[in-house]
Amino acid sequence: MKKCLLLPALLLVAVLVGSCSEEPPVAPETDSPQIAGLDLDPAAVAAELVAKSGWVVDEASTGADASSVPTNYVTHVNSEPLHGDIVHYSYDIPVGPGPYDMIRLHRVVKEGGNDGPIRSRKTIFLLHGDLIGFVKFIFGSVTPYLPDNYSLAVFLAENGVDVWGMDQNWVLVPGGLADYSFSAGWDVQNQVDNLRAGMSIAREARLMTGNGFGKLNLLGYSSGGATGYAYINEETQLPPGHRNVKGFIAADIGIKFDTSKFEWNRQYWCETADYYQSLLDSGVYNPGWGDFFTAMGYLAETAPDDPSPLIPGFTNLQVALYLGAVPEVPENDWYHYVAGIFVDDFPVDLRFTQIGSWLDFVQTAAPFEPLSFTAEYSRLFCDEVDLPYDDYLDEVTIPVLLVSAAGGFGETGFYSLDLLGSSDKTIHHVSLNPPELLDFGHIDLWTADNSKMDAWVPILEWIDDRTPGRGNTGQKHSD
Fold it and tell me: Which residue, 362, 379, 394, sits at the end of a domain?
């Protein structure tokens, strides 16, 4: 989510950081057998992914014909040790005809010696939210302020969970492009379709490596949770054998609000949706949020006491603390990123997250995120326009866990669970320092020094409690 008060400063930020860009993700060779019609075959893509990873194939689990495996479709194949026997794999996979129609699939898993990744019934598929991609789930490996193994993905993998996840297409788009209009169709449905592709490939890869073809638990954080709600809503209309999700974890998110308590919140999203749509109508597809946060973190880290070029009248560090700890809706003390310590109504330190961790976190922001997506999910929250993403929530019957941060979405996320048909619904509300202004924030979930005990352990326990047999498996199974 973005603080709308930042937007007037974005043009200045574009000047400051516009020269920084990345190489675009490498597209597959044009003669790839999957390019024709772009009818993605998850089993074939998974077979190539498994082969390029060097994982041992369980011949009894798959009937895939090795001769039909494409050899030039999956790009950016990479593996890196994160901590001890935990390894991070990543792959770029095209999901459309354009050069930026690409997702990055991730796996974080415990290695079992020469046989590669362990086999496990315990699963999770992690979907990120706004601005920052999958890196938030392995954050300890990219900041010196936390141990290498201090991240949700590594914590779960250390406890025997087979962790998968993805970066949505927009995370891989470089900054500095002259034209971002290619993203006009990257709305909520586009993100749902990408999620289906990623989860389908992950399940096929697990099948080929002896983990069975069981469905996966899905965790969606922030706007990724909105995509997750839309996805489980859509899956209700598919035959059970065609569904990918067996349990859903909404991480600090709700998509509908109890208007008897939170009408102000619903109206906030209506105003936000209108503003985003006005940018789209004027031809703005990349307002530069990622560049702003990257510049903010860099300036606060390298020149904390210098006057800020982003918001005049403040130092660089003051800007970073203000935008991290001050509520998005001040009159209701609602929604901040990281809980602050205030003196004379201004944040001077952070309560649960180290300042260095916060600055490193914002510097991992992607340079682009599609306004088509943010405008549409804001319209979904507003609930004044009929959108298809909530039509069948009462038919959702899978187990659901809401992990809410009292200083983030807080209790506004509770009502969405009431709309589900599930009999197994759990809320874990992290409240460490009431009132909301000072309480555990939206990004504290991943960066706070106490995140493991207060947020991650309950997630692991929820997965454990809903995994038949748990532990390692050497046989096919389905659940």
Answer: 362
Q: Is there a domain that residue 293 lies in?
A: yes
Among 333, 362, 391, the domain boundary falls at: 362
- Per-residue pLDDT tens for 71-86? 688 988 999 999 999 9
Amino acid found at 123: T
Report the C-alpha gap between 444 and 324 in whole angstroms. Answer: 10
Give the CATH number, domain containing residue 447.
3.40.50.1820
SS3 content of the chain, % helix, strand, coil (to 5): 40, 15, 40
- Between CA 427 and CA 280 the distance in angstroms is 36
pLDDT at 9 over 60: no
Q: Express each pLDDT in 300-351 by its tens digit.
A: 999 999 999 999 999 999 999 999 999 999 999 999 999 999 999 999 999 9
How many degrees, rounded to 5, is the angle at CA 243 between CA 58 and CA 183?
A: 105
pLDDT value at residue 2: 39
Calpha distance 455→251 (Å, rounded)? 10
The Cα 115–Cα 109 span in angstroms is 13
Peptide bond between residue 435 and the one before it cis (omega within 30 degrees of 0): yes
Q: Give residue 353's domain range.
A: 271-362
470 lies in a domain?
Answer: no
Supply the pTM of this predicted model. Answer: 0.91
> Quick check: is 340 in a domain?
yes
The H or E element that residue 268 is part of is helix 259-281
Residue with tokens 């489980």: 232
Span 366-406, pLDDT tens digits: 999 999 999 999 999 999 999 999 999 999 999 999 999 99
Q: Which residues of 63-98 are buried (b: 16+ CB within 10 A; e: fewer)?
A: ebeeeebbeebbbeeeeeebbeebbbbbbbbbbbee
Give the model's pLDDT for residue 214: 96
* DSSP string computed for 338-377: S-EEEETTEEEEESSS-HHHHHHHHTT--S---HHHHHHH
Q: What three-state secondary structure class fits 273?
A: helix
Q: Is 123 helix (H, G, I), strand (E, B) or coil?
A: strand
